[in-house]
Amino acid sequence: MLTTNPFDDDKLREECGVFGVFGSSDAAALTALGLHALQHRGQEAAGIVAYDGSDFPAHRASGQVGDIFGSQDVIESLPGHRAVGHVRYSTAGGKGLRNVQPLFADFEFGGLAIAHNGNLTNALAVRDRLVRRGSIFQSTADTEVFIHLIATSLYEKIVDRLIDALRQVEGAYSLVVMTQKKLIGVRDPLGVRPLVLGKLHDSYIFSSETVGLDIVGAEFIRDVEPGEIVEITDEGIRSIKPFKPVKSRFCIFEHVYFARPDSIVEGTSVYDVRKNIGRELARESAVDADVVVPIPDSGVPSALGYAEESGIPFELGIIRNHYVGRTFIEPTDQIRHLGVKLKHNANPGKLKGKRVVLVDDSIVRGTTSTKIVELVRQAGAAEVHMRITSPPTAHPCFYGVDTPSKEKLMAANHKIDEMAKMIGVDSLAFVSIDGLYRATGLPGRDAENPAFCDACFTGDYPIRLVDHTAEENKNRKLSQLVERRTA
Length: 487
What we know:
Elements: E1 16-22, H1 27-37, E2 45-51, E3 58-62, H2 65-69, H3 72-76, E4 82-88, E5 103-107, E6 110-120, H4 123-132, H5 143-152, H6 158-166, E7 171-179, E8 183-187, E9 196-200, E10 203-207, H7 210-216, E11 219-223, E12 229-233, E13 236-240, E14 250-251, H8 253-258, E15 264-265, E16 268-269, H9 270-284, E17 291-294, H10 300-310, E18 318-320, H11 333-338, E19 344-346, E20 355-360, H12 367-378, E21 383-388, H13 410-413, H14 416-423, E22 427-430, H15 433-439, E23 452-453, H16 455-458, H17 466-469
Parallel strand pairs: 14-23, 17-20, 20-21, 21-22
Antiparallel strand pairs: 1-4, 1-10, 2-3, 2-4, 5-6, 6-7, 7-8, 8-12, 9-10, 9-11, 12-13, 15-16, 18-19
Helix pairs in contact: 1-7, 5-6, 9-10, 9-15
C-alpha cells in the first residue's frame, strides 16, 4: 500500500533560484523581494550577501524568505549598493547551514560571493583533484567547487579566473557572482538552467525568472545566453562568450512545472505553453467525461486548455489549502494517514456522480496521485480519468533537480496500464513527447537534434554524467559536519 507524507507533494523538486542587484541603495531589500518571487524554486533555505563598499554583510538561514528576511532589522543589517541572493532546495550536498548559499570566500583580490542554480556532473572528480592539491572544503555543495577553482587559478583578472573555472566543470548551472567591483551572471554552454537580465532605473538585476523582475518593477532586457558571461561594473555591461557555440538544450520541465506560470522563459509564456499542453492532451487522449478538474496549483492552466479543446466544463473540484507549512505538525503515523487532506480537499458538489478528468503535471513515485484519486472517489465521482501534462518520468535528473533513483520512479518500473491500476484510475494517459514539443511551438521532437533537455523523459542526457558513471563514486557520500540545532 502506498503511503503519503502530507509534507511531501511527490513532485520533482525545484532546483534553486538566484537573484542579484547592482547599483541600488536598496539592493538587499530588492533581493529579498526577488527571492520571494522565486520562492517556488526552493523552500528549504535562503540567503543574501551584500557589499557596502568595504565589507560583505550576509544573512543565511533555513526556512522561507518571508520568515528569514521579513524583519526590517535584518534588511538594515545588509547595507550596500549590490547584493546577491539564493533560495535553495538541496539537490547536491546536505541540508546543513554550511550549504546555504550564497557561498562567500576571501581571495587575494578581495571577497567573492556566489549563488548557483543547477548541478555539476563532474563535481566529485574535480573535488578529488582539488583536495589532493590541498584545498579544504567547508561544505558538501558542489557550488564550492567554483570557489576553489577560482582560488587556485593562475590568472590575474577575476573574470579570467572564472572562465578558467568554468572550463574545468561540466553540468548545468546558472551563476550570479558578486565581487567588490562587479556583478556577474553566467549560464552553462547548453543553457539548461535559466537566467534573465533586467534593469530598474540605473540598477541592473539578474534573476532566475522574469517574475523576479516583475515584483520589483524592473524591465526585462533579455535572457542571458547559453555559455555567456555578463559582467556588470560602474562602466556598464560587458558580454563575454568564452565557449564554442553549441545548440542550446533548455530544460523543458521549466515549461511543465518548475517556472511560475506568469514567467516568460526563453521568450515564451509559461502559462500559454501549459494551456497548449492541455489542448494536446485533449486531442491525444480524449475521454467521455462530465468535468475537467485540475490538481492545484500546477495543473490549472493545462486543465483550462483541456477543457477548452474538449468542450468539457472546467471546475475546481479540488481545493488546496495554501497555509499548511512543512512544519505544521509532527508527521506521526496518524497524521500521515490523513495524507493529502492537509493540503487538498475535495469539492463534493462538483464531483459527486461525475465522470472526472483529473489533470496533473507529473507522476513521480505515485504516492500523492493515489491519495488524490482516493479523495475524489470518496467525494462520489463515478469515474476518474487522469491526464498528465508531461511524458512518463522514467529517468532521474542529474542537472539540478532532486529526483528519486530510477528504482523509485513509477514510470521506470511499470507500464501505463499497471500505473493506472496502482493509482486507482479508470484510465491514465500522458502527453506524448511530440505533443509536449508542439505545445512550445515546435513541430515535434527532432530525435537527432532535440531543442530541449528532456532526459527525465527520454534518457537522452546532453551533458556527460562523469560522477555518476565512475565506479568509484557509486553510493559515495561526502564527509560532512553534522550540525545540530539547540533551543
